[in-house]
Input
Amino acid sequence: MYFDGERGSRSESISNHRVDTSLTVVEISKNQNRPGFLDKYHQVIFSLDSEGIDSMEMKIWVHSNYPDTEIVKVARTFLHRRLLDFVEILDGEIYTPEEIDALWQSIKPATIK
Output
């Protein structure tokens, strides 16, 4: 196992709220047996952290023929596509930032200012 510790971070402002989001490489396991495949693969584990949502890990397989210096970038590329797929799935039935803020204002408990 190999730990990289490389960290990418981004903050985004949504409806006057500050949301901190980060993506961290937790672990790189090289030359692993990937179920269903004969070749060796590297497994890159990312931690996705965002305020208000429980942290989650995503495991990405990268073929061992990719150069060692490119493993993380290739894994990020594959992860990017998967996350875009999730965005596309969710895109149809969501509130706009203004709509969700208006809804929250109408149901917000008196104990929250």
Notes: Helices lie at 71-90, 97-107. The two ends are 47 Å apart (CA to CA).
